[in-house]
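Duplicate of #3305? Posting structure anyway:
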């Protein structure tokens, strides 16, 4: 596997993860009422606990995207540029 192919692979992984992160933020911000009603129907009394956990989970997911997708992508692009 060449460096360019590896950089393209990590770039696509980054793109897909950013889209999934964006969808997660949209669900929690724009569609909050729908998500709350769905969680009430699924979890009952524990839905408030899950509502408090969702923003923290999205922040953790964002950190993981940065560490495991963005940083390797930038490192590969720097190595490709200087080689």
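Output from current build:
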């Amino acid at each position: 596997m060449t460096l360019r192919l590896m950089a393209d692979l990590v770039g696509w992984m980054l793109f897909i993860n950013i889209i999934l992160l964006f969808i997660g933020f949209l669900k929690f911000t724009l569609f909050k009422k729908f998500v709350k009603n769905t969680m009430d129907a699924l979890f009952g009394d524990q839905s408030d606990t899950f509502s408090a956990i969702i923003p923290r989970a999205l922040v953790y997911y964002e950190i993981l995207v940065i560490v495991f997708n963005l940083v390797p992508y930038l490192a590969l692009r720097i190595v490709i540029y200087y080689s």
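Confirmed duplicate; merging threads. Residues 56 and 62 are 10 Å apart (CA to CA). Helices lie at 3-29, 32-43, 47-82.
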